[in-house]
Amino acid sequence: MCCLAYFRLEATLFCKELLQKETKMNTEPERKFGVVVVGVGRAGSVRIRDLRNPHASSAFLNLIGFVSRRELGSIDEVPQISLEDALSSQEVEVAFICSESSSHEDYIRQFLNAGKHVLVEYPMTLSWVAAKDLWELAEQKGKVLHEEHVELLMEEFAFLKKEVVGKDLLKGSLLFTAAPLEEERFGFPAFSGISRLTWLVSLFGELSLVSATLEERKEDQYMKMTVCLETENKSPLTWIEEKAPGLKRNRRLSFHFRSGSLENMPNVGINKNIFLKDQNIFVQKLLGQFSEEELAAEKKRILHCLWLAGEIQKHCCSKQ
């Protein structure tokens, strides 16, 4: 199977399992997995909300508490517990890691070594080597390691997938603008923006790096990363991340095919419950409802994107 077909197979599983496997979660669970949420920012708060509400996958999960560096006591009657207690408790079998990206690797390693399953918000780590090592650790421990990718559960991606399938790409570009992020907390732009790279890889297969540049004006908090990529068929793809105070969060794309062009994204609807959909996928993994082929395709895509992000960072830093 060629890499493009392999990655497209992996991308389709995010929709397929929601349709075909969710029915298996509608029965009364034989057991519940105790869960702790690490980090209670935007993602962590949404995770707590979904865990507390009566959803099919939430019936398999029992929210024990949350871990935070801040002294919060409780949130919506969910108690705060220490990291040490979360790691040592036999009640806690699963960790949802929703902290800033720079802390992911350490938390994942600690929870896997403590014998817990792990769901982590993207990016899993800020290096390909670390991610590969953590996946090997998860396999040694016999635990699920799941990296969230809600961008693949969005209505926009579902639309793009339908538009792209079976078409020959001539060239394409993807520009993302937003307010700046702290690199120390969220990583180099190729990692903090890895959801855009994931879109491109999921749509067009494995990519090769041609060039990468980073323009910065630190006094203005301005940053522009320009990455030139190539598909296996040598079709060029340009990915640009541009961030500055006041820049609105926006995504602009342009894909040119032999059979026509796609310029920008039409209004394709509201993204509903995408974190809950990701939770459903995670529970299905806990229940062994994914095939080895599906899991291998997902792992291959995630590691390829992390490897690309690392190569982009090297190219940019070597020219500064």
From TrEMBL:
InterPro entries: Biliverdin_Rdtase_A (IPR017094), Biliverdin_Rdtase_cat (IPR015249), Gfo/Idh/MocA-like_OxRdtase_N (IPR000683), Gfo/Idh/MocA_Oxidoreductases (IPR051450), NAD(P)-bd_dom_sf (IPR036291). SUPFAM superfamilies: Glyceraldehyde-3-phosphate dehydrogenase-like, C-terminal domain, NAD(P)-binding Rossmann-fold domains. Residues 33-149 form the Gfo/Idh/MocA-like oxidoreductase N-terminal domain. It comes from the Eukaryota. It holds the Pfam family Biliv-reduc_cat. Coiled coil: none annotated. Residues 157-267 form the Biliverdin reductase catalytic domain. PANTHER family: BILIVERDIN REDUCTASE A. This is Biliverdin reductase A.
